[in-house]
Structure formats: C-alpha cells, structure tokens
Amino acid sequence: MHQRTVPCQGYFAPQKIEEALEILSGYGKEIKVIAGGTDLLIQYYDRLYEVNGWLDLKNIKELKDIRINKNQMEIGAMVTHTQLENSEDIKKCYPVLSQAAADIGSPQIRNRGTIGGNIVNASPAGDLLAPLMAYDAQFRLLSTKREKIVPVEEFFIGPKKTILEPAQLLTQIILPLPKKKTYGCWIKIGKRKALIIATITLALVVKMAEDNKTVEEVRTCLGSVAPTPIEIKEIRKKMVGKNYDQLDFNQLGQIVEDKISPINDIRGTREYRKDVAKNIMINALKEIASARRSYR
Amino acid sequence: MNKLTIELTINNKKRKVETTASTRLLDLIRDDLHLTGTKEGCGKGECGACTVIMNGELVASCLILAPQADGAVITTIEGVGDDKSLDPVQEAFVETGAVQCGFCTPGMILAAKKLLEENPHPDEEEIKRGISGNLCRCTGYQKIFGAIKLAADRLLKKDGGRGEEDA
Q1: pLDDT tens for residues B121-154?
Q2: To the nearest whole angstrom, how far is the Cα of B162 from the nearest Cα of chain A?
Q3: Fewer C-beta within 10 Å: chain A N or C terminus?
Q4: pLDDT higher than 70, residue A229
C-alpha cells in the first residue's frame, strides 16, 4: 500500500506544559494536539481533518502521572488505558474507571490510547466518560492566559463537541478520593468483547452510610444513549436516604429506561438500547447488593 | 512537505531515517526500512496485522506517526528468531498448524510473545484477551490457542528444568 500523507508544516514534541501552551496559543486551530492517536489517526486517515501541524504531548512527563494530592486523585491527561487498568490506586479507589479502561479496544489500543484523548475526542460512546461522571471528575484546562477547572457535566456539549478552546489544553483529570463504603459497577454492552464501540455503557456508583445499609449518594451514568454522557438524576430521589435492601430494582431499572432517549444507529436500535438499559441497571444494582453483603 | 529525521533502534540496530510528520510508523517500517513482515490489514487498529513491540509494549504501527517513534526501541517479526533457529513461539505455531494464509501471523506471534512474557502460564481466557487485538480469518483461532499453550509449556519446562538443576 502506498504511503498516505497530507500537507504538514510541522511537528512539535515539547518537554514542558508551558512550551506546549505557547505553541498552542501561536497556532491555535492550525495545529492538532495528539496524545495516543488511536482515535485521531483513524479520523485523519479518513481525511476528516486536514492537519497542518502536530503538537505531540509524548515528552511531557508530568502528564503521565497518577498521584494523590491531599484529598484528591490527579490523573495526567497522557495516562494510558493500560496504566488505568493496572494502577493499584485506581483499582482501589475507582474500580469502575479501571474496569472501563480494561474493556477498551485491545492491548494495542490500551497501550497507546489515553484518558485525555478519550475525553477530548468526546465520542458519545467514549468508554471512560460515564465512569468519570459517576466519580464526579473535574478537568483542568490550561492556556497561556488562565487555568480553568470544569466538572464533567459542563465539558461535553454534543457528539464530538466540548467547551475546550483551540488555545486550551486538557492537562489533568481530578477525582475526589472516595469515601468509605462506596461501591461501583461497570457494564459495557457491545457486539463483541474486544475492539468494540459500545452500544450502551453504565457506571453505577453508590455510597452507603456508616450502617452500610442506607444509601447516602448515588450516581447513575450512561454512555452511548445521548449526545454526551448523562446522569439519570431521578435515581437519586428514589435511592438517597433509603435502605438498600428495600429498594425496588425493577422500578429503578424502569426509570433508567424511561429517562433515556437513545437513537437508532448501526450499533443498536432505540428500543434495544432502552430494554438493555433497564436490564443492566437491575444487574448493576444486584451486583452492588452482593458486594455490600461481603463488605468486611 | 517538511522532511524530518528520526532515530530509532529496530531489531537491535540503530537506524536514522528521513521521513515526514504525517508518515505512519507502519509505512516507515515497510517502505523505508524494507521490513515487510509487518503487514497492513485494516489501517484502523482493528486487525493487528501491523502489530510491533515498541518500548516494550504491543502497539498498532498504523496508528503511530513516525516522529512519535523517535528514540523508540522497536521489535518487528524480523527481530524474532532467525533463519537458523526459530523462536519457541514460532516453532509452536509451525508445529500446531496455527499458520494458514500467514497474513496475521507476524502480529499474532508478537502478541503471543508479549503475552507469555507478562503471563508465562495463561489460561484460555487470558490467551483470548492477550490476542484480542489480532484478527485471523483462516484458522478459527483454535490452533493458535493450541500453539500458545504449547509454547507456554515448553518455555516453562525450559525455565523449570534450569531451576531444578540449580537446586
């Protein structure tokens, strides 16, 4: 196969965030920021973009760190899915995120693809997005002029659309450290296990009170059912303050089914997605019930 | 098109290559370095035919820009075994008939090698996950699983034997 190229004026791989921001503020839309490239290069070879220059973040070491800073976890934007899958801190504190990362693509994709790329790409089917919403993530956006920290809910505005400006760089994902007795469940539905774009995803995170019975907080977040990841907030009203053993799982599943408005596409019909949404919600609630019973 | 030069270590040899920022690593390996064991299947990271090991990690070379591999250490299928002696994984593929048309084989062998390096005794589920990024349209995979199990057994015996001698 012949070599496929498009006009390209430059390639930058700075070592410092500051240099990257300078380059971005100088070139703005003319330059494409590249992390792992596992989404971007597919779009690029389909000629959705005419790229004049690349800003490669591979040399910026601080973007590859996972660290605990006071009461929060800071994940660099260049942390790969493999890192998320294997990090003991992430497994312990955010199992839903770790499991979602493990379900992405294939070893080849997980070794290159990054959390920052998954976020900025903003696919409605992005596997990490519902888990990040369920764990109340915030994103650190930097430009030469200012720093901005935005919650997940405000970042995504449509399919492949975010509030990120051309001169801004997503540098860090910030998660509050989980409180005790927080349980989570991740479910991804697709036509095969590997290398599949999700038909629907669910990230359910439940925080119990000290008695390990009363629901204190709950986040029910779904992917691939709307233009952006969404939370079904009605579930909060039905669960918070209630005894987990007395919850009506069927009713909660029905609420999820009723509140989503998915589209028909090649991965599944609207009806299929609604049916499955209910069932995976029920399964997730059951899984958390058994995790809670085995709490020591 | 602006030219740029990258340096990489490929199959233990240092190479300097003039390329462009929009050249894929796959094209650099095949067209510039003439290592045509690495194949192009889908060009979208879904089939694994272009798999190489870069800095110790299994990657799809169709989804990497040449300058992203600047300074990298890369192993392609040409760096596994040699004309006189095959790698144990290659031997096992030959013996079990895990090769039919052969197009997936270079990527499959590299994925299998990487898997056994990280997990010397994988069960069937772990084998499936380890090669989940590599499609084969001929074998139905059963013989590939068999080959990987055979290679694992032999590699373990080798290590185990040495261990016993030491004791």
Answers
A1: 999 999 999 999 999 999 999 999 999 999 999 9
A2: 31
A3: C
A4: yes
